[in-house]
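Lab notebook: predicted structure, single chain.

Context: the supervisor wants predicted structures on file for every construct in the current expression panel, including those that have not yet been purified. This is the next one on the list. No modifications to the sequence; it matches the entry in the shared construct table.
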Amino acid sequence: MNYSGYKGKSFKLSKECPLPEIILADEEALMPLSSAIIQQYASSVVVDTEQSRERILLRFEQ
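Prediction complete. Output recorded below exactly as produced.
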């Protein structure tokens, strides 16, 4: 299992990709786009907070 920890904005999971017009108009729309792409490839995605750091756990099953 791989995980990445960081200090910053919370990573919110989203299954829907924003429309291209929204991505171009709003930089914040990249987070839902990234989330949707990650969820398409990972078998499971878990986001939590540990000691004031965000943590993203990704599982890939073959």
